[in-house]
């Protein structure tokens, strides 16, 4: 009888040990996911993901995910082809070229439907469409 009680106690100890090991694994996995949180300094932006694709017409499409921490009155925008915080009125009124989105030497033009802008130099044109 005493032997049977010892076997049961041992089985419970093994089950509790396995449960603790599994629980510990979930905790460490959850903490590793938290380490991917991006903290951005106030007034700046940081690219957290970039995507690139090419279609049949040899037009390269690029998109990126950006995290910004802008000051009051500012929103995420583009300055010199890089993500930045810009005055909110520029975006609200769709005066895209006021952000100075193109690199030096490129000409900025707002698209006719006001959905973005293009930066051109010579025969090369880069078009940016704003999505929300």
From TrEMBL:
Molecular function GO labels: receptor ligand activity
Protein keywords: Membrane, Signal, Transmembrane, Transmembrane helix
Transmembrane segments: 9-27
Range of residues in the leader sequence: 1-30
InterPro entries: Chemokine-like_TAFA (IPR020350), TAFA_chemokine-like (IPR051743)
GO cellular component, one term: extracellular space
Pfam families for the chain: TAFA (PF12020)
Keyword Transmembrane helix: yes
Similarity remark: Belongs to the TAFA family.
Protein name as catalogued: Chemokine-like protein TAFA-3 isoform X1
This protein's encoding gene: tafa3b
């Amino acid at each position: 009888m005493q032997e049977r009680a010892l076997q049961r106690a041992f089985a419970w100890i093994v089950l509790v040990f396995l449960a603790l090991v599994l629980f510990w694994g979930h905790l460490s996995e959850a903490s590793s996911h938290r380490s991917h949180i991006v903290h951005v300094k106030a007034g700046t932006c940081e690219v957290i993901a970039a995507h690139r694709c090419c279609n049949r017409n040899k037009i390269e499409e690029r998109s990126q995910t950006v995290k910004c921490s802008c000051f009051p009155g500012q929103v995420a925008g583009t300055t010199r082809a890089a993500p930045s915080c810009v005055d909110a009125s520029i975006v609200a009124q769709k005066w895209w070229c006021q952000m100075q989105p193109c690199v030096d030497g490129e000409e900025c033009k707002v698209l006719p439907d006001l959905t973005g802008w293009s930066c051109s130099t010579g025969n090369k044109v880069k078009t940016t469409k704003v999505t929300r």
